[in-house]
Amino acid sequence: MSQSIVIVGGGAGGAELAAMLGRRSRHLNIDITLIDRAAKHLWKPRLHEVAAGLRGDDDALAYLALARANNFRFRLGALTHLDHKTRMLSLDAVFNEQGKTLLPKREFKYDKLVLAIGSQVNDFGTPGVREHCLLLDDTDRALAFQRRLLEAVVMVSQGTYERLRIGIVGAGATGVELAAELCHSIRGIQASAGLIAAEQLDITLIDMADRPLANNTRAVSVFAERALSKLGVTLRLNSGVAKVTHDGFILKDGDSVPCDLKIWASGVIGLPLAADLNLTMDRSRRILCDDHLRCIGEENIYAMGDCASVIDPRTERPLPCTAQVAHQQARYLFECLSRKPRAPLPKTFRYRDRGSLVSFGKTSTAGEVPLHKKGAWSFSGHFARLGYLMLQIMHRATLLGWRKTLTFTFADALKRTAAPPVKLH
User: Fold this and answer.
1) Mean pLDDT of the chain
2) Residue 360: phi, psi to the nearest 5?
3) Where are the beta strands (DSSP E) in 93-193?
4) At what angle do helices 382-400 and 63-70 cross, to 10 degrees?
5) How many Å apart are CA 243 and CA 252, to the nearest integer?
6) Ramachandran angles phi, psi of 28, nearest 5°
7) Using CA atoms, how far apart are residues 364 and 232, in angstroms rounded to an integer?
8) What is the structure's pLDDT at 171?
């Protein structure tokens, strides 16, 4: 009888793990099932480009197509309950836009379970965030912001607003990249549709740290400050947000930042669902895991990606919530779950920091690579841009293989030569 392996969450790590295990499933006598509440997979590190209107969800890959190509099953639905004793998990019903039931509530049995349910933006209990800010947690919210952005652009072009004021809280990679891409987006709209001038855009980036990209080297932060300043972005550093209102952000020092569109991109916390799974969690609602990525106290349940709290022995802190971490964990769990029944577990998981890349648009990218002994090498320019683009190409290759990936990449390049730089619908 084949062993049932269920993966909940089709993000960067979950989708890669399902594809790798699925391709080996016939040889390993295992059945792979991937569960996700969305029907399509979009690489999360580029959500800011969707929000800015520089791309839609055209790059998204249907899970059903991925399942067909990689010999695994896909089930649409949101996880609601987990029974450790009977090894059963429950999915909520799925409804269409009119509220009609498409799929009823269901239950699935597993022998091995991998939780890759992701995370959400942490508002730190700040009043008004959930009511007035847009959060870039998933594709639907990124597309919702894209629509709001285009509506605001039309209102400025018609004279309803004199200027478009956008405020972003969080000067980490997401906030910095979004601010830069919004500037390029407005210029693209001006060039292709003439709706708004770049001079009518005000973007303010707010953070409590004393520099943008505070987790990167100072050289990358300096590059970011120069790039953002060149684009016209205003930085409000060493500034905490006390509350958010309909009109903008109220800072802890009493100042206010008036905004028409408000984005909260600061902090990460586990999903509320994680608290209902009867698993051990840390203070950030992330599931505590051992060195083999098993949930603490569980032999048959693993966690990976943003929802997993895995301590890095070098820093004694949880690993960051990045696609790079999820990718390495997917590779490790592939080794764990594809081994023969009585074979020992692989050596403990060890994260290897390969560096980071931050995009400021098509013409400007910066990155850093940790050096063997100490410090990091910082770089920018065309080499950094090529590395940034290669990250998604390599991810696609894991899901689709190199032949299909190169075909898609070439087709996308051709399409962009004729399509407008910004989606206007």
Assistant:
1) 91
2) -115, 25
3) 94-95, 101-103, 106-109, 112-115, 119-121, 134-135, 164-169
4) 70
5) 8
6) -100, -5
7) 15
8) 94
The whole-angstrom distance between residue 145's C-alpha and the CA centroid of its chain comes to 15
∠ Cα 107 111 116 (to 5°):
75
Q: Compute the distance between CA of residue 206 and CA of residue 228 in angstroms, rounded to an integer.
A: 13
Residue 367: half-sphere exposure toward Cβ, Cα within 13 Å: 20
Cβ atoms within 10 Å, residue 332: 21
Q: What are phi and psi of 63, to 5 degrees?
A: -60, -35
pLDDT at 418: 67
Secondary structure string (H, E, C) spanning 294-341: EECCCCCEEECHHHEECEECCCCEECCCCHHHHHHHHHHHHHHHCCCC
Top pLDDT among 419 and 121 is at: 121
Q: Which helix (H) or strand (E) holds 416?
A: helix 402-418
Q: What is the pTM of this model?
A: 0.93
List alpha helices for 29-138, DSSP H.
Answer: 47-51, 63-70, 129-132
Q: What is the C-alpha to C-alpha distance for residues 100 and 292, in angstroms, rounded to an integer?
A: 42
Residue 115 pLDDT > 70: yes
Task: Give the tokens for residue 358.
Answer: 């931050």
Which pair of tokens denotes residue 350? 């060890």
Quote the DSSP letter at residue 86. Answer: T
| Residues 49 and 360 sit within 8 Å (Cβ to Cβ) | no
Q: What percent of the chain has pLDDT over 70?
A: 97
The span from the CA of 225 to the CA of 243, in Å, is 26
